[in-house]
From TrEMBL:
InterPro entries attached to this UniProt entry: Ion_trans_dom, K_chnl_volt-dep_Kv, VG_K_chnl, Volt_channel_dom_sf
Domain Ion transport: 15-208
Localization of this protein: Membrane
Protein's organism: Methanoculleus bourgensis
Membrane spanning residue stretches: 60-81, 116-140, 155-172, 184-206
Membrane protein topology class: Multi-pass membrane protein
Gene3D superfamilies xref list: 1.10.287.70, Voltage-gated potassium channels. Chain C
Protein name (Swiss-Prot/TrEMBL): Ion transport domain-containing protein
Keywords recorded for this protein, A-Z: Ion channel, Ion transport, Membrane, Potassium, Potassium channel, Potassium transport, Transmembrane, Transmembrane helix, Transport, Voltage-gated channel
GO CC terms in record: voltage-gated potassium channel complex
Gene Ontology molecular function: voltage-gated potassium channel activity
Pfam families (alphabetical): Ion_trans
Keyword Transport: yes
């Protein structure tokens, strides 16, 4: 889709792009149908009808469907050219299918899921800050900049650019009070936008450590080495039999 937007590249190689698109859709369609058919092997989707419907409503299944929908929908429903172009943009969802096979993306997904409440609170605070700061700037600067700050929704663009420390420069305060307020808001934005990064990084590190320390993540050689160390510590009298048993249980997991 990205290369197709380059007319100089797409026009002379249109046949190749179309063939590649058909091939990709065929592969993704077969994959989607196979996943939909075999999902009943999972106890959560055991019902032949309701189970498949529940699976089809999961986020990953929706992404799979959106990846192939733009190709098939125009075959059954006559659509306006503008709608067709909009549907073609849905092909970008094919990129999200990588998350099925990427350990890092799966790990990030678990982190986001674990911190969803914290992230929600942070987003609420950021939205509240945007509303408050844009309102303040509107009342301070509206009289001297009636066009650039015509209303509070217009001022929200300035608030977002300032709080995120981007500062495009298309709208900026000109009065002394407005400049003082803008500087304070910019400093506030540095801290507020750093909070989500700090929360996610700490949660990501904790998830990585939890995964690395789980028995399933250890190789057989590592397990044998740990058991030998425990046996040596018991022989030297550093650990008691009970302590060795506890540590052995941790090494082998609940099934050990």
């Amino acid at each position: 889709m990205i290369l197709e937007s380059v007319e100089g590249l797409y026009i002379p190689h249109a046949t190749f792009f179309q063939a590649f698109d058909i091939f990709s859709v065929a592969v993704f369609t077969v994959e989607y149908l196979l996943r939909l058919w075999t999902c009943t092997a999972n106890p959560d989707y055991a019902n032949p009808v309701l189970g498949r419907l529940r699976y089809a409503a999961t986020p990953l299944a929706i992404i799979d469907l959106l990846a192939i929908l733009p190709f098939f929908l125009p075959m059954f429903i006559p659509l306006d050219l503008r709608i067709m172009r909009a549907l073609r943009l849905l092909r970008v969802f094919r990129i999200l299918k990588i998350s099925r096979y990427s350990y890092a993306l799966k790990l990030l997904g678990r982190v986001m899921k674990a911190q969803v409440h914290v992230i929600g609170v942070l987003i609420f605070i950021l939205v509240l800050l945007v509303v408050i700061t844009s309102s303040l700037m509107f009342f301070v600067e509206h009289d001297v900049q009636p066009d650039d700050l015509a209303n509070i929704p217009t001022a929200m663009w300035w608030a977002v650019a300032t709080l995120s420390t981007v500062g495009y420069g298309d709208v900026f305060p000109v009065t002394p009070l407005g400049k003082a307020l803008g500087g304070l808001i910019a400093l506030l934005g540095i801290g507020m936008f750093a909070l989500p990064a700090g929360v996610l990084s700490s949660a990501f590190l904790a998830e990585v450590q939890k995964t690395d320390n789980s028995p399933q993540s250890r190789s057989p050689e590592e397990v044998v080495d740990l058991l030998e160390r425990l046996a040596l510590l018991r022989e030297e009298g550093i650990l008691t039999d009970e302590e060795v048993a506890v540590q052995k249980q941790r090494v082998l997991g609940d099934d050990g």
